[in-house]
Amino acid sequence: MIKAGSLEKGMAILIKGQPYIVVEREFVNPGKGSAFARLKLKSPQTGQVLRETMKTQDSVEDISVDDKNCQYLYFDGDVYHFMDTDTYEQFTIPFEGFEDKQYLMKEGETYRILFWDHTPLDISMPYKVVYEVTEAEDAVKGDTVTGATKQVTLETGLRIKVPIFIKQGEKVLINTETKEYLERVNS
Fold first, then answer.
1. Beta carbons of 174 and 181 less than 8 angstroms apart
2. What is the Cα–Cα distance from 144 to 164, expressed in whole angstroms?
């Protein structure tokens, strides 16, 4: 058991017998009354998002998870294929529940995967990742009224808005949580 005030983003807990990952945590200490934590929890099995408010002294059941470094091999439309970098054992993770990772993971890259009772709970992404632009329309001269952005497609298939000076073949840094452009990367 762990106190709700000690919960951190990325921790795994059990609620009503189901595992949840803490996605967001906000600590609130009002002038009157006891402190509490606002939590946003996500079920890796169903994708369901719960919003809970708990007093910081309340106890919740934490679960012990294993985290392994695994290499992402490929996606076949139904499942993600991974390989454990320690044992070289290959395994799959169902697409359902991890839809948001589809256009963020690059084949051949290593990601940290959380397991609970041999069930994958989360695929941990780095906060910032560099991607290559594979498709970009040419900027139209004088088209700066719209905020000077355009849509491009990255090597993983992710479509994002970038400044109009970004060209095909260039590399860009992306925030994986918001899926937004951060900066151009000179290689």
1. yes
2. 9
Which of 94, 86, 132 has the alpha carbon at shortest distance from 112? 86
Q: Which domains does the chain have, with CATH numbers?
A: 2-62 (2.30.30.30), 66-124 (2.40.50.140), 128-185 (2.40.50.140)
Measuring CA to CA, which residue among 185, 142, 148 is closest to residue 165? 148
**Checking DSSP bridges between strand 149-154 and strand 159-163, what pairing results, if any?**
antiparallel
d(CA 98, CA 110): 16
* Dist CA 34 CA 16 (whole Å): 25
Beta bridge partners of residue 110, listed in sequence order? 71
Name the CA radius of gyration of the chain, rounded.
20
C-alpha closest to that of 99 among 151, 47, 141:
47
Q: At residue 25, what is the residue type?
A: R
pLDDT per residue as tens digits for the range 90-132: 988 888 777 788 888 989 999 998 888 887 888 888 889 899 9
Q: Which residue has the tokens 């200490």?
A: 29
- Compute the CA torsion angle 156, 160, 163, 166 (nearest 10 deg): 20
Q: What is the pLDDT of residues 19-53, one digit of tens each?
A: 888 888 888 888 788 888 888 888 876 777 889 88
